Amino acid sequence: MRIGVPAEVKTDEYRVALTPSGARELTQAGHEIFVQGGAGEGSAIGDDDYRAQGAQIVETAADVFAQAELIIKVKEPQPAEVALLRPGQTLFTYLHLAPDPQQTQGLIESGATCIAYETVEDQHGRLPLLAPMSEIAGKIATQAGAFMLEKPLGGRGLLLGGVPGVAAGKVMVIGGGVVGQNAAQVALGMGAEVYIYDRDIDRLRELEHQLNWHASTCFASVLEIEQRLPEVDLVIGAVLVKGGTAPRVITRDQLSLMKPHAVLVDVSIDQGGCFETSRPTTHTDPTYEVDGITHYCVANMPGAVPVTSTWALTNATMPYVLRLAEKGIVAALAADPGFLKGLSVVAGRVVSEPVAIDQGLTHLPAAEALALLAASR
């Protein structure tokens, strides 16, 4: 199979979708790899590193898209990239379609087959391609939040971990999944007082054990959150609905309950954000203020640490890329119901039910989508 790796063009995105080790595995299996020149530079990977493992370096993204049957990326395709997609081509990347009808429409019109990393499931219903980036984003969320609490950056002027004789700061983490757990672990490591919220009691029991009973686990009711907001210095939103738009867990009115210059970090921003006042920001310009509360809503948090996140991501995605290349798209998806859950758009039809519901579209059931794919090849 011919596999293409374009350079990422989203603002402040430094990751790349393939490492030299991945190129070696694919070329050794007889596949052709086309990497855009400079694609790996942000992750400290040079063109010669790819060439040494059998990949071909091409000059532009248009060259990559023109030659490849399978395009692998990190972030959702930007409009210029969507325009390069064509029928019969497959795109495998993070899509986060639910809050982005413009991208959905572009992918529908492209006629391409689009598979989303973030909705692929393993046999236990977990999200193996989202997990490594969730781990990194959770750690960055606390790290960034602690930084933004510093006075010169508009924060309260508080050291999150405190010092002897001065109380530590308080951190509220809303969402007890992979992001929330990692955010809480880092906050505890800094010495903060941590409250982690979720609606799944069994998950809260697990977190008690995983966090060594050092964090307070709380049921995420509206009243419980409201009662805690006046006490906390940093709130991390880590709410996930698989494939769907994130629910709002803090409204603008509730900001008035918080301390002046407290910080909100919205890790759910890729799925529309879980705070009413959230809007996407970049690493270059990461924060803004609403009603005296600092908001950090960077839409690609792991992109800030590409030397870590590129390898973490590709370690997870490579087995799936190999399956697509070896078996072909239809057979690879048909053989794994969890992989099939990543199928989002096929031949101008939306396959992801959560995306269709959020955008008022009709969804094509996965079995029908597979049959349509098989018939077109």
UniProtKB/TrEMBL annotation:
One term under GO cellular component: plasma membrane
CDD domains registered for this protein in UniProt: L-AlaDH (cd05305)
EC number: 1.4.1.1
SUPFAM superfamilies found in the cross-reference section: Formate/glycerate dehydrogenase catalytic domain-like (SSF52283), NAD(P)-binding Rossmann-fold domains (SSF51735)
Domain Alanine dehydrogenase/pyridine nucleotide transhydrogenase N-terminal: 4-137
Gene Ontology biological process: L-alanine catabolic process
Keywords: NAD, Oxidoreductase
Alanine dehydrogenase/pyridine nucleotide transhydrogenase NAD(H)-binding domain segment(s): 149-297
Presence of keyword Oxidoreductase: yes
Recorded GO MF terms: alanine dehydrogenase activity
Membership in a protein family: Belongs to the AlaDH/PNT family.
The protein's name in its UniProt record: alanine dehydrogenase
